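Need a sequence for this fold. Nothing fancy.
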C-alpha cells in the first residue's frame, strides 16, 4: 500500500511539471516517428505478488517486501506505431517466511537480495502523432539476483536463482512541449525463483510476478 501511495504521489508531482514545460503548447505535438529514439526516466514502485510459494523443511509461505527505485528506459521506433523498449532498474527486497515452523503465527526475516531485471518489450503505440499517445507492450524479462544477505542467527546463508519470464505493459506518453513527454506506465513481470537457505537445507520457491507502477518524463530525439 505504501508503494502504491508513493507511485500516486510521484505521478501527481510529475503531472505538476506540465505547466512549466508547456510554454509552446500552442504548437502542434512533435509526436513519435519511425527512426527516432526516446529516453524516459521514471520513479517506480515494485509490488511482488508472491502468487504461489512453498518452503521445504519448515513449511509456510514466502513474503517479499515492496520497493521503490528509479528506472531508465530506451526506446527505438521501428515505425511510427511500433517500438522496441529496453528497461533498466534495480531494487532491493526483504524476504520473509510466513507461518513456518520458525514462527507458526507470524513472519521471520530470512534476508535480503538485490534484483536486476533487464526487460525487452515490443510495443504498439496508438495515435503516435497526437499529444496523448497510449501504448501496450509484451516481451521478455531476465531477473538476476545479487548481493543476497542472510538475516543472521539461524539463517546463515542465502542464495537466489536467476530466471527468465514474460512481461506485459500498458501506459501512455503525453507530449507537453517540443520533444518533452510525460509518461505513466504499468508492467506485470512473470518470474519464478528459488531461495536456497543454509546451503540448501531449506529451499523456498515463489512466483514473484511483481506489478510495477511508474511515472516520469521522456525526451524524443
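Here you go.
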Amino acid at each position: 500500500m505504501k508503494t502504491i501511495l508513493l507511485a500516486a504521489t510521484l505521478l501527481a508531482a510529475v503531472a505538476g511539471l506540465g505547466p512549466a514545460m508547456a510554454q509552446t503548447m500552442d504548437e502542434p505535438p512533435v509526436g513519435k516517428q519511425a527512426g527516432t529514439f526516446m529516453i524516459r526516466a521514471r520513479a517506480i514502485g515494485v509490488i511482488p505478488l508472491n502468487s504461489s510459494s512453498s518452503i521445504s523443511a519448515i513449511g509456510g509461505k514466502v513474503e517479499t517486501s515492496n520497493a521503490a527505485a528509479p528506472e531508465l528506459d530506451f526506446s527505438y521506433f521501428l515505425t511510427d506505431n511500433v517500438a522496441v523498449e529496453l528497461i533498466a532498474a534495480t531494487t532491493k527486497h526483504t524476504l520473509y517466511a510466513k507461518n513456518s515452523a520458525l514462527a507458526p503465527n507470524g513472519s521471520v526475516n530470512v534476508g535480503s537480495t538485490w534484483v536486476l531485471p533487464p526487460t525487452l518489450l515490443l510495443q504498439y503505440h496508438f495515435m503516435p502523432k497526437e499529444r496523448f499517445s497510449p501504448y501496450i507492450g509484451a516481451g521478455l524479462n531476465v531477473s538476476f539476483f545479487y548481493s543476497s544477505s542472510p538475516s543472521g542467527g539461524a539463517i546463515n546463508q542465502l542464495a537466489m536463482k536467476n530466471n527468465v519470464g514474460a512481461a506485459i505493459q500498458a501506459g501512455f506518453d503525453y507530449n507537453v512541449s517540443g520533444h518533452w513527454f510525460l509518461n505513466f506506465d504499468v508492467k506485470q513481470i512473470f518470474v519464478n525463483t528459488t531461495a536456497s537457505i543454509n546451503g540448501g537445507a531449506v529451499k523456498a520457491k515463489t512466483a514473484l510476478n511483481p506489478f510495477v507502477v511508474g511515472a516520469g518524463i521522456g525526451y524524443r530525439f
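For context: The longest strand covers residues 132-150.
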